[in-house]
Amino acid sequence: MRGILLTGALFLQYYVSAAYIELLKEDTLNMVEQLVEFGKDEKDTSVWDELAEMTDLYGNRMTASVQYSRSAEWVMKNVKKYTGMTAWTEDVNVDYWKRNEESVHLYVPTRENQMVNLPMLGLGQSVGTGPEGIEANVIPVSSFDELQTLGNKTIAGNIVLYNADFVSYGENGQYRFNGAFNAEKYGAVGALVQSITGYSLMTPHTGTMNPAGIPAAAITVEDSKLITRMYNRHMKAKQNPDIENAELFVAPRVKLVMNAQNYVNHTQQPNIIIDIKGSEKPDEIVILSGHFDSWDVGVGAMDDGGGAFCSYGALKLISRLPRKPKRTIRVIMWNNEESLSRGADGYFAAHKNELDKHIFAMESDIGNFEPWGIELMSKNATLLNLYTVFGNQYLPTIGGGNVTLVDEPPNVDIDPLCAYGIPCGGFVTLDKYTFKNPSTPAGFEGYFRFHHTEADRMEVLDPHQLRRNAAAMAAWAFMIADQ
Ligand SMILES: *[C@@H]1O[C@H](CO)[C@@H](O)[C@H](O)[C@H]1NC(C)=O
Ligand SMILES: *[C@@H]1O[C@H](CO)[C@@H](O)[C@H](O)[C@H]1NC(C)=O
Ligand SMILES: *[C@@H]1O[C@H](CO)[C@@H](O)[C@H](O)[C@H]1NC(C)=O
Ligand SMILES: *[C@@H]1O[C@H](CO)[C@@H](O)[C@H](O)[C@H]1NC(C)=O
Ligand SMILES: [Zn+2]
Fold first, then answer.
1. What is the pLDDT of residues 63-108, one digit of tens each?
2. Which residue, 121, 163, 120, is CA-closest to 138?
3. H-helix or E-strand containing 377?
4. How far is the CA of 401 from the centre of ligand 4 (A)?
5. Pocket of ligand 2 contains residue 265 by CB under 6 Å
6. Where does the Peptidase M28 domain start and stop, copy by copy (predicted)?
7. SS (H, E, C) 88-118
8. Which pick of 250, 315, 328, 352 has the fewest CB atoms within 10 Å?
9. Do 238 and 381 sit in the same domain of this protein?
10. Domain boundary among 259, 277, 293
11. 281-291 and 358-363: which strand pairing?
12. Does the residue 226 lie in any domain?
């Protein structure tokens, strides 16, 4: 997940009592009921097991890396085990951003080791510092307004630290995306960003940033607060040199080294596409999707191995049914979601003559915990009412049947399709740890504890939740495709 989530989105909950309507024809309902039953089979841990095998073998799937290619080959080999599926790849040009050696050291002269090594992660797309690095004082700010108030006089020649506490990804993400660009305007030589999370165990969180001429990196919440306290004590001591320990309160000063390199259009790598062809209208398409690329830390189990493999798992469940859906159900594992959306843009361009044949596009890219439902973007009120009834009537036993209306594309990869006017949905789950309704602004706090960190490993995910997600997504796809 990269994009800003649902800021200012419109949340409408529709409760339609529809016990009296039999909306699905019996033949469709039978298939949907079987998919729901598959979701209850406690012995089936295949979605988790397969994702574990692939990620154990190849590690992360950073776009343009060799691991991305090997993982994609693993899927293309795996898909041969299933009958009734047609799989192919569609290449797109991708840039390769390599972080290489990087570090932040904080000068604390009272410690035995005066250069304290801080865990950090350079932000994707950042320029490097060169091997010599840069050394400068750090000026903490909690907002862009504060940056502007301090202005060139205070900022020029220094490194800006954005230390805002976690509110939501949308609110805090602006400092990661635009922090360096804005700081540069006031003559800053670098930017540090407090990692975007409400809960930290000294884990830095990376993520992409908008182009800027100065380097930028994420540090942990703990170190962001340490630097802020040092700065505040230093300012106090400057105003009043008589306070106790004033001479010990040095200005926070760091050495930032980033050998990051960006290789434009380094290689061509695929979106992975897998179809179960429809029996009556094979040219009409319902998409289930997640992105296949990940960051270069952890293994991208949660972001977005879970979304990609629950989509794929859904298709495998559908392949076990006694008959095919009327329309084609297409799984897409998108490339390059985490930085430049070349996968989404490439698909849109390559399929521009058949966009009108796309009936629905779903993506799962905000965690796969207990199924909750879909965030629907559609101007069609009939469709909203219909899906609300579908979800409530056919999915309550495994969850995933709630429907909420949003007025912005719910996920990055389906964004072009949603914007084109294809009804689309983000598949969302009850948040890990907080179990909050996902349509509240901070409803994804548990997800963001792991997002873009070394800790995004298989242990974040639960095999039974993944199976239920796959079954719920399969049921949605089948209901829509069989209409
Ligand atoms: C701030 O400093 C930058 C870099 O030194 C300079 O380009 C810019 O014009 C300055 N802006 C203001 C408002 O002084
Ligand atoms: C890289 O690829 C993109 C998209 O495929 C293209 O628009 C761009 O012109 C290419 N850039 C270079 C430097 O080749
Ligand atoms: C709205 O959705 C309904 C139900 O799927 C469909 O029958 C109808 O054609 C749609 N209307 C438009 C304008 O797309
Ligand atoms: C809707 O979400 C709630 C949890 O917020 C869950 O208990 C319920 O089963 C869901 N409903 C459906 C129809 O999936
Ligand atoms: Zn993602």
1. 999 999 999 999 999 999 999 999 999 999 999 999 999 999 999 9
2. 163
3. strand 370-377
4. 6
5. yes
6. 271-476
7. EEEEEEEEEEECCCEEEEEECCCCCCCEEEE
8. 352
9. no
10. 259
11. parallel
12. yes
